[in-house]
Structure formats: C-alpha cells, structure tokens
Amino acid sequence: MRDVLEELDERRSEARLGGGETRIAAQHERGKLTARERIEALLDEGSFEEFDMFVTHRGTDFGMADKRYYGDGVVTGWGTVNGRTVFVFAKDFTVFGGSLSEAHAEKIQKVQDMALRNRAPIIGLYDAGGARIQEGVAALGGYAEVFQRNVLASGVIPQISVIMGPCAGGDVYSPAMTDFIFMVRDTSYMFVTGPDVVKTVTNETVTSEELGGARVHTTKSSIADGAYDNDLEALLQMRRLIDLLPQSNTGALPEIECFQSVKQDDPSLDTLVPKNANTPYDARELIEKTADEGDFFEIQAAFAQNIVVGLGRMEGRTVGFVANQPMVLAGVLDSDASRKAARFVRFCDCFSIPIVTFVDVPGFLPGTAQEQGGLIKHGAKLLFAYGEATVPKVTVITRKAFGGAYDVMASKHLRGDINYAWPTAQIAVMGAKGAVEIIFRKDVGDADRIAEHTKMYEDRFLSPFVAAERGYIDEVIMPRSTRRRVARGLRMLRGKELENPWKKHDNIPL
Amino acid sequence: MFSKILIANRGEIACRVIKTARRMGIATVAVFSDADAKSLHVAVADEAVHIGGSASADSYLSIERILDACKRTGAEAVHPGYGFLSERAAFCEALEAEGIAFIGPAPKAIHVMGDKIESKRFASTAGVNVVPGSEGTVEDADHAHAIAAGIGYPVMIKASAGGGGKGMRVAYDETEVRDGFERARSEARSSFGDERVFIEKFVLEPRHIEIQVLADTHGNVIHLGERECSIQRRNQKVVEEAPSPFLDAKTRAEMGAQAVALAKAVDYRSAGTVEFIVDRDRDFYFLEMNTRLQVEHPVTELVTGVDLVEQMIRVANGEELSIAQGDIRANGWAVESRVYAEDPFRGFLPSIGRLTRYRPPEEGPRGDAFVRNDTGVFEGAEISRFYDPMIAKLCTWAGTREAAIDAMGEALDSFVIDGINHNIPFLAALMRHPRWREGRLTTAFIPEEYPEGFVAPEADEDEATVIAIVALTAELVRKDRLDRFNDRVAPHPGQLRRDWVVRVGDRYLPLAVEGGTPGSPLDLTIGREDGERMHVATQWRPGEAVWRGRIGERAVAAQLRPVPNGLRIDWQGLSANVRVYTPRLAELDRLMPEKAASDTSRMLLCPMPGLLVSLAVEEGQEIKAGETLAVVEAMKMENVLKAERDVTIEKVLAAPGDSLAVDAVIMEFA
Known about the structure:
Largest interface: A-B, 63 and 52 residues
CATH architecture of the largest domain in chain B: 2-Layer Sandwich
CATH topology of the largest domain in chain A: 2-enoyl-CoA Hydratase, Chain A, domain 1
Oligomer: heterodimer
Mean pLDDT of chain B: 91
Strand content of chain B: 25-35%
Distance between the termini of chain A: 61 Å
Mean pLDDT of chain A: 94
Largest sheet of chain B: 9 strands, antiparallel
CATH architecture of the largest domain in chain A: Alpha-Beta Complex
Number of domains of chain A: 3
C-alpha cells in the first residue's frame, strides 16, 4: 500500500516539473512564469484542483513515441478567485513548446465542457507554438473541437484569454472567440502566420513584435482588450476583472459592500463641462466620479480612444460604462469607436450587466476614409447593440448629442430606461452654424442675419429642453447629483423584465 | 463704520477679506474677470461685478473699471488685497477723489516706499539700518578698496545697471576687490553698456525677517513682531513663520523700534511691513517697506490674535487703534506653507489645469494645535494661466515651533490635490528636513539643500514599514470585502491572513499580522521580520483618499491612490508604489523582469486628421510625462497631445498651421 502512495507522489512531482528544470529556468530567463506558477498567481492560494495531470499524447510518428511528458503541454483544472469557481487551462511552454496535440486538445475540451455545464467562467493562459505538426490532422481536429466549444459557451459563461508568450496559427482562433483577450507587453505576440511565412509569401520583412505584439493589438488591430507589463500584473488584473463578472448569463450580478454613499453630491461635476463648447474635458473623470470609489476597469483603453468603455460598480454591483471622450477627436463616432462600443454593449447585455452611457457626441466622423471603410455598417453595429440590449440602460447627456449619433447613444427611442440630461446638454440635429446655413440658405451672404438666426437657433435648440418637452429626456439633472440619480435609477431597474421577440438569433450587421 | 466695501482683488485674499468684513457686519462686493466668473471669491461675496477680460490689465489692474464698480454698487471703501493695485498711489488718489476710502496707507507712503533707492535714503534718514555701501559710483580700484575698507569685508561689487547676477562680484580682501572691480566694470560695460559700479556690504548667511506694523490716523504706531520668510524659491517666499527662530529679544526690540520709527517718519497708516535682511551676527539691514497687507500675514494673526484686516478697516474708518504696543504678545508659534500649482521636481515651474480633487485638511483645533487654510479655489475649479498659481495658504499654530511644524506635516499629509502638479511633496519633505527643523536657515536654503533641484527623500527602513503597513491594512479591508461574495463556493476564511510580504518601491518587507478580525475598523498587531511588533488601528475604508490611524507610537495620515495591483502612498513627502503580496506571490514577483521604458513611442504621431494649432515645446527641451506637447484641432475641437513619458524633444517636424493626416509625425523624441 505504502509503495502505491509513494508512486503517486513521485508521479505528481514529475508531472509538476513539466519539461524539466532547464526549461523552467529558460522560461524565467525570458521573464515569464511557468504554467503552474501562473495558475498559482491567478487563483486563490491552494485552491487549484488539477485534472488530467498524467495525460500524455498518443502520437508515434517522427519518433514521438519515446518523447512523452505528463500533462502533454497544458495544465488544466479549476479553482477559485475570491471564493468563486473558475475553470482554467494554461499552456505549458516547457513541454513541446506548449504545442497542441489531440490529447492536449482533449484536456482543454474537458474543462470547457465542465465550465459550461457548471456555469462558471473559463480562463485560458496562452504561451505556445501552435499545432504539434507531428500529429497532423489530429491536431487540427483538436483545435476545431475547442473552437466549437468556445462558440457554444459564448454568451453563456465569461471566457477570458491571456496571451503570455507566442500564440500563433491555430492557437489564435480560440482566444479570438472569447470575450476578452489580454496580452503581456514584450513577451507575447499573436498572429495567424509568423514573420517567416510573411517573408516567403509577401516578401515583407517584419518582426514578431511589429506583426502581433501587444502594442499592435491594443492600438491598431483591437484584437487585445488590454496589455500589462508582466505576467504577475496581468494575472492579478484578471482577478480584478473576474470580481466584476457574473458566473454566467443566468448568474446574479456579483455584489460587494459599498462604502461610498451615493447621497453625497459632487459639486466639482458642475464645472466639468467647460464654458466654451469647443473645449474638451475628460470623460474618465465623470466615470470615476460616478462609479463606486472611482474604480474603473477600462476595456480597450488604447484603441479608438474617442470612446471609453469599461466596468465599474454602482452601490457595489457591476455596471458597464460607455462614454464619448471629448478629449479625443471631440468624442466623434467613427468605425473603430462604434465597433469597440458595440462589442462591449453586447458583452454587458449577454451577462445582464446594466449599462450607463454618458453622451457628448458631435456626430459621425465624415470623410472618404470612413465611408469607404464601411462607417454605415460599423455605426449600425452600435445602434443594433443598444437597440437589442434588454439590460437596464441609464443614459446621461452631458453636452452634445447631435444627429444620428444622438439616436445611437442609448437614446429613449432605443429603449433607454432612464434618459437624463445635464443643463449643459445640446440635443439637436446639428450644431448652430451648419443648421443655420441650411435653414436660412438665402441669408448666407448676410452676416448680421446669420448671426441673428444662429443666436435664435442656439437659444431654442442647443439645450436639453426641446427634447425634454417631448419626453425624450426624462429629467434635466444637476451635474453634481449624477451619481445619486444614476444609482437610484439602477436600483429601480433591478426588477426590469424585457424580452425581445423569439428568434433563432439576430442578424447584426457584421 | 462702512456699510459696504469692495475688494479689488481675487483668489484667497479676496475671500479672506470678505470673511472679516462679514464678521464685522459689512456687506462685500467682489470684482471678477472673464476667467474668474465661477471663482470662489465671487460666490462668497454679497455682490459681484464683472470688470473685464482675463488679462489682469483688462480687469484687476484697471483703476477705471474698479472705480466704476464702486459707483455702481455704492461701496464706501476698497480693500486692495496684495499685488494688483495695492501699491499704486494713483489708485489710492483716484478713490479718494471720489470720496471712497482706501483701506491701506496714504498715497505719500506708497509713493516714497515704492521707489527702491528713494525708500532706502528715507529709511536711512529715519535712523533705520541700511546695507552700508558706496554713496555714488566707484571711480577706480583704489577708490573701491577705500570704500571696502570703510564698510568692512566681505563686500559685493554690483553694476548700477545690473541684474540677473551679471556684473556682480564678491570680494573678501583687497586683492579681490581690486580684481573684482575691474572685472565687474568690464562685464557691466559689455552686458549693459554702462560701466558704473557700486559697492555694498556682502551679507553673510542672509535671512529674510520682516516686522509687521500697524498705524492709525491719530499718530499711533505699533509693531506686531516679526515673521521669518527665508524659505524662498526664485526670490519668492514659500514658507513663513512667526516668530523667527533666530532673533533674540534685543534684536527683535531694535528691529521693531526701527520699523515703528520708519512708519512714523512716513506718516504711515494701516498695516504695513518693514522687510529686513539679517546676517549671521544678527546685524540687520533695511530691504524695503511693503505698504499693504502681506501674503503671509496669517502667521502674525495666529501668534498675536489680532485680525489685521479688521484693524485695516477700522483705521480706514478713522478709528483709533484699540491696542497698544504693550498689549502685543507673541503666543506660541505659527507656520505658513504656500501651496502652489507648480512642479517641485522641475524647478517649481507653474502647472495649470482643472483641480479634479481638492480636499484641504479640516480647519480648526487639532489636538493642541490649530489649522487654518486660506484658499480661493474649490474642487472642480480651474487654475488658469492668467494669475498667480497659489492654491492655498495652509497655516498651523501650536505652543512650540516643533509642534507647529509637526502639525503642518500632518496637515500637508492629508491635503489631497489632483489634476495639476503641486508643491506639497516639497513642503512635506521640508517639514521633516533636519536643517529646517533646527531653524538653520538662509534665503538660499533651497539651492543649498537641493543643488540639483528638489528630489523626494528616500524612505528609511522604519518609514518604509509605516508605508507598508498602511498598504497592508488597506489590502486586509479590501480582501475581506471580496471574501464575502454572495456566490462563493469556498468557505469564508473567517480570519485575517497572517503572513504577508509588502513591496515598497524595490524593497520587500515581510510582515506578520497578529490578532484582529476581518473588516473595518481594524485593530491588530503587526510584527516585522526583526521581531519588532507594532499596534495598528485605523478606521480607513475603501474609497477614502486619506488613511488615518496609529502605527505604533505614530499618528499617521497618508494618501492612497490606486495603481495597477497596488497603491501609490504619499506620506511626509515620501512617495512609493506599494504592492501587498502573499509570500508566494512575492517570490513570483521577484522573477518578473525590470521593464525598461519602451522605445516604441519615439515619435509623436497625429492621432487624427486635423490642424496643428500650436506647439508647446522646442527642440532640445526636456518634457515630463503628462505635459502638453502640441494642440491639434479636429472636429472644431482642440485636442491636447501630452507626453506619455518623460522625453527630450529631438526634432520638431510640423509647424503651427499645418494640416496633418492621421499618424503624421509631429515630433521625434531623443
């Protein structure tokens, strides 16, 4: 009996060493943690329950029969983050470079299935070289099985991917179908085909960093939702994100005790919108002064910065914030901003996270680049996302809400539950100058008359009151009371029941 | 008594005058420029009158507009505050011509004391010590030596037309004075085209000490003791105190007597200040007389209990002083810190912008000490480029100098300002500086102590431990809250985790928690690796910017700001990023590489198609993270492009007026 117990210990020790001490040292040398260290950092101390520790691959070609390591290049299992269940898999770069075999893929599928069945989030930690070529089509099959499970779990449980090393070829598509992708700066990159293939096919010379580093994916491609300086920072921030997420689309919103009273006015918001309508201000300040304790987990902070999206809490419960950012491009809606916000709004709607929208938008961005780039369909994505969302929607117009962009930004007409405006709001088809030149075209040469018309237009239309007269705005509120008003609105909406007509699924303009 | 007065000023001093006027039952009128429409002084006054554009010349310096405001509101008297029109004899005359009282001295005193040379002559005649020196210009080297021998070495040779240190020479003996004379003369000739030089006694280890005087129109003049204002940067006072730690009773009496004599000689009325320079032997020399209320008057008020603004108003109303010299007693010690919107780490350069957070310490008694904060701003206010960047004057009073300095340290620790750069890190560091605490000051204190510019002090082991404990307790409270999710599957731990490693900057400090229960408030013992155990108690809760509590024997007020996975903690001028880890996470943290600043941002790219409105930098300039580089207009809005890290500008590739495409390179960094 004794021997058997010892054998288990020995086997476990061997499995925990992965590809061996030399490879672990090499991993550390590159500034990276090992798969097991990463899981330790992500989960509550001592909470990790590992599955399939002794799985090995079944390949025999190319001499692989002799090369077997326990775990086969991926560590899988479950544990807790602040006491709540999460499933996890971490590619082990020390074993076959983390490459995916049939057996390796089956381990991932097992935790995917369990996460879905038990309605808990799943987090994948990527640091791998792609398919194990020696396994041929078996590896491809393995990938597709993983992809299919990603698709089925989408919108049911939160799926998060963290890229902490190479992630190439078949490996990229599973993260691409998850809710969020985060990267580690300088040590991670993501692409379908690497620099060598690029060179061969297009004769383009490019580094991995230029092709798919964290900078590219957070600022240009928008593949990644954020980037961190090192493994530990990334993993601890994932804990912060998980704390904000419900366990599934039927799970309750996570709630923590809130120490910051919502009754306290914040008079500094009364001076947030500058006197000059062309002077910017920081929408983040408004979000941070509305959310509990100024705590705001921003998504895609470095991409399409003309719109700010992210998660925070109101009275201890998770809320999604969307705000036009006047600091960048006047907060205009362009294709990138529309896509970024649309995806975020749909994420919130999937998981019953209420949405608070702050509006200061001068319209859609004009120009050939935008029109030829499909602005109509990209803008429609955000319109669609807000229109289909059934979660509580509270909207506050702080300044400009012009033209079609007014409609798009969670307006009353798109089933906004509570639509507030600050006294500084200007809700109109367009700004005064443009409007007057169209309405009074015959007076365009006459500066005095134009000035007179402009004044009339500004007084009548550049205010929240025309919209309020029609009930498009439920109430005009003092800026200082925003946190209280939004919080009360969200409280009232806790019982909201709204369903869209039955459909197989909608046909959002992709 | 007047029924209504107008305050021809802005900011904190306008608010301060209004406070006293209100207490005396006098109605107040504020005046404001465009930029000040939403200012605090406008809000607190009974009435406010708009007097013009943001530039001072169009508003606060316009005698005509202020006179007009007086007439429109029926104000019977004007308090000028300090700066602006406070020392313009013409303003005083214009008011009096309209039958409006000027709450300040008569035009003659302003006139005589307003001229540097004239005031010195006048003071000398009145029996006030002036810096000994040559009467006229110096003829030749022999003459220079003769003069120097007469006044005693060391001497300073200065160009008559001089300024900015050019044509200035210090000489300690005859050889140096002869040599220095020739050099100073040739420098004067080449720099100013005027070779005249004069010689003055060179004051060793100079300190700036001034006497507050108060005079009425009935011939009574008293002095209210001294203030020392030796802590200066760019010849501007930063920290003042009353009394001076340097003066003895005899010198104090002599300086007071001379100040009173001077005030009498010039028929002074109202509050005024006679400034002296005092050398290491306590010899003192007249510098100038300020014929107005000084910025630093609160320290005198705190130690004497006299409201100087009230006295000024009463004197202007023709009343006789109700206090005699014998009634004046300095009680305890007061210190004033001028909180400026400026960056102490970059040569105290001004900083402008929105005060997103402004939470001054509470005024009033604090234990045996007292806190006063004279301010003209509020949270959400804008610090504009048009006026002086002073945010507040924070004063503390206590029985002794040491206690007043400690109270100041604590008040600064709990003074929260965000949105702009400010000098609290410097002020807080000063309060713990040994030389300041010992009172060994000169007017060159800042350049002497920080020859390379101000740098934040480094925390020693004990201080790092205090910072670590603040962060650890914050983490314990935060963790407890997260341990109580409604949908958790693991059982609640039910107790505090015992072993932690706190990273303060680059130090890892193992700490052991003993006793205590989860949640807030916390009351527990924390043990250090070396076995020392400290009792820790705090009521801190998440979201509070200031952590207050006790750590061992210390009362601690520290500021917390979130950074990724940790906190930035500011305490006593120390600033550190702190992360709280379990021992295992600390091990993993040690494996993480040091990140060099990424070089992917060597260029400033235009983020949008637009028009380059202005460039804020030049080639070769060093810029700190967060500072403005350029302004691009797009969508009819100005977008401010700021440095994402500290950079040096290597090349500027665009000019204002250029139309830029997306990703057009505006400048390159070195």
